[in-house]
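Sequence only, no structure available. Ideas?
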Amino acid sequence: MKYKLIVFDMDGVIFEHDNFWFLLHKAYKTFKEGKELTKKYLQTDYARLVEEVVNRLWKGKPAEPYYDLIKKAKYNKGVKETFKEVTNLGLKTAIISSGPLDLAERAKNDLKIDYILTNKLVIEDEKVAGRFEWPIAEGHDKKVKALKKICKKAKIKMKECIAVLDDKNDVELAKKVGYSIAFNSSSPELDKVADKVIIEKDLTKVLKDIKKRLR
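Reply:
I predicted one. C-alpha cells follow.
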C-alpha cells in the first residue's frame, strides 16, 4: 500500500493537554458542571452538550482566557521533528479534532500542516458568542466523515492514510484507515483495534513504524 497522508488527533497527540475544553472550563470556573454535562451528553447528544456549555455556561465570558490557553498550549515531545520528517518522506499531513479551530490553526502555521478540520468556538466583540460551529461533531463515526472530506479534497483513498490517535472517539477512524497508531492512548478499545500501540509520550516514536510502512 502506498500511503499518501498522515492524520493526527490534536489533544494528547500534538499537544500535551488531553482535553482543551476541560482547560477552558477550569479557566471559566465551570469545570465541575462541565465535566458532568460532558459525561451525560458527549456520546449521546452532542448538540445538547454544546447548548448547555457554550450557550448557557460560557456565553458572554471574556475571550482573553480562551486565547491565553491557545497561546500557552505546549507541544508534545518530538512533535516538530516528527512533522518535519513525515513531510520530508512525502506525506501530506492533517489534523482532525473536536478541539478548537484556533489551536489547530496555530499548529498548522507552526508545523506546516496541509489540512485541518476541527470545531470552532465563535468569538464576537472579545466575548464568547454562545455559538459553536461543529462540522465533525455528530455521530460515533464523526472523524471518519471528516477524513472522507479531506480525502476527497486531496484526491486520495481512506486506505492510503495513516492515523495517529489516542482516545475512544477515534476507534471508528482507526478501523477505516490503512494503518493506525494508538499513541499514549487512554482507550483500551482503541488499543485493541489499532495496528500499533505506542505508550511513550514522544511523537518521534511513531517515525520508525511509519517508515516501515513506506518501504
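The longest helix spans residues 142-154.
Hope that gets you unstuck.
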